[in-house]
User: What shape does this take?
Amino acid sequence: MKSHIGPAIRLTVVMLVLLAVIYPLVVAGIAKLAPGGGKGETVTVNGKVVGYKLIGQKFTEDRYFNSRPSAVEYNAAGSAGSNKGPSNPDYLKSVQARIDTFLVHNPGVQKDAIPAELVTASGSGLDPDLSPAGAKIQIARIARVRSLSAERLNQLVDDHTEGPLLGLFGPAKVNVLALNVALDQLK
Amino acid sequence: MSRFFRRTSMYYQLLGLTLLFVFAAGLAVLMGRYMSRVFRGQPTALDVLTPVERCIYRAGGIDPYQSMTWQQYALSLLTINSIWLAYALLALRTQASIPFWNQGGIPSMDWSLAINTAISFLTSTNLQHYSGESGATYFTQMAVLTFLQFVSAATSLAVGVAVVRSLQAKTSSNVGNFYQDFVLSITRVFLPLSVLGAVWLLLRGVPMTFQPYTLIHTLEGVEQTVATGPVAAMIPIKHLGSNGGGFFGTNTAHPFENPDMVSYGINLINVLLLPIAFVVFVGYFLHRKKLAWLLFTIMTGCWLALTLPIIQQELTGNTAVSLLGVDQSMGNLEGKEMRFGTLGSAFWCGVNVVIPAGTLTSMHDSYTPLASLFMLLGMQVDAFYGGVGTGFLYMFLYLIIAIFIGSLMIGRTPELLGKKVGIPEIQVAALIMVIMPLLYLGATAIAVAIQQANPDIGWLSNPGFHGFTTILYEYVSSVAGNGSGFEGLADNTPFWNLTTSFVMFMGRFIPLIGPLAIAGSLYRKQYTPPSAGVLPTESVTFGILVTAVVLIIGALCTFPALALGPIAEYVSQAK
Assistant: This one.
């Protein structure tokens, strides 16, 4: 044992220098060349930062495309999912409440047309996206509130829809913040 | 029409994931061959690093050419691991007072949490009873957690290599030099791959900064504090090393850890690469390609048998939510992210329960009951690829037991790759296989008993059978070194911190030292060339036998517990 302690301590110090000092500093150096300089890319409107490109934010007003429910109300300094089990009665009650709220805010929408994503909380609580269906079901409401035509909004959603990568990877999605920024610019 | 379109798009996505897996396996073949050259000391493209390694040996006061017996190997490993544990404990207890790489506002960890976190990262489990954004400073994330992810992974790989080295067709009493295997694992495998992975992730927008969290005003005018940090340095090694501890609380589901399908692909390849490459390494190193193919086929077949039902269950959706009448054609979306969808999330889950990186792109607690059944099975066996190095160690134990049973059945001498398997080897292998389930089942029994006696203890956010599964999952994951969790468990309490620390510690070092002892003993024995008098270990029949042994020992022994958790929840839901 004794003969191993010396090398163990010395090797640990060497490895700390290599892995905990040199390695992070090299990666941080390379980050300066990356998009956003390694600080996370921001979205600006009229020179003012309104959010991060990758981080979802809370949209509950009728005049915006609403984002998904979040277990932490889009607290980007404390991400979490709901961690509710599929058969938990409290959980099912809260899903039911979200369905009711959605129907009140979107009269005319049939219950079986509501995509499940709009009544279930995301994994990170910071999901920045919706599916195209999740955005389109909100068009009638927004068209009414903003006095815009549904066709223009439909076009807007289509323009902001990213298809699967190379047609093969991942579902189609719409970034809600980018969509709402563009929505504010519609005249 | 739209439903038809969604189904077609699902097939394309499935094709995409299949291609991703094939690509990762292809890279793993190259990697396995490269690793065989590295650990044989043959020339490779990275020999430019030889002077760096020489510096490390000199600064560490190490003679890398001095060969060790298995006991010396184990002792040097345990000694340096104890140093890391002491260092980690000290750093976690004092993280608040370390002035640099500190975003501010993070307290030092209390004793039980510090012990849990230190052991969890030392054992490559990465259970994480703290939440990254509020529980760890940048210094801790880099100099403790990322550091431990590197060195614990290199420890696993080193032992894997030493065991494989001892299975060569020759006789020796020394299994190699721990320090050399360890240093080469870092300089030739983990560090270069991590730098490469970090660059890719940076290009996708993963942050790497030491500035504090920023406050912004959202489009609706609400304040939002956004946590960033030195993320890009941690993510590659957490996947490559089968570690799994994320920078943020929600792990790989967090948009800053995994922004899109490109980063998903990079991360998935990093999870799969080394565990598969290790099987290839075995084939090249021992010149036994048939054995490698056999292991690869068993592992891939069993992995698919676990993953496909998870995908199917999740795509079908939560029956209770269907009853509420909304459109669930995109699957069970509770706890999932839209950029990965149900398919991508469930596929990721399937990979990360068999490989104990155990990272989450979706919250396992919200999966359907039968999906959680297959998750538990994957973690219990821990050898369908398994972790880098450690997956093979488990498979090695299953092989020993299968050889013993198979040879007894046909009346031959038990022999593994030309070495007689004697009573001590069988005893060690069987003992480990009994201790592992005993650890998680015993701990589950204690926790459930306490929960029953104190229903208001507030551990579980989900009642009933699901609550039982939560407890079982926590301990299985701890023993298996997986580290994923049903996060609906209030686990940052002294009870949970200390009990999981204990089972993680045992679940790590017993299956690390045990196989080393068996291999050391086999290496010393006379090699006999293959003859008709032994059970052939590279045949399809033997493959079936090994699979049966894995299923019976690794899976069936916990059937009663599984029946009380996921199966009971499923049946009660179907009612």
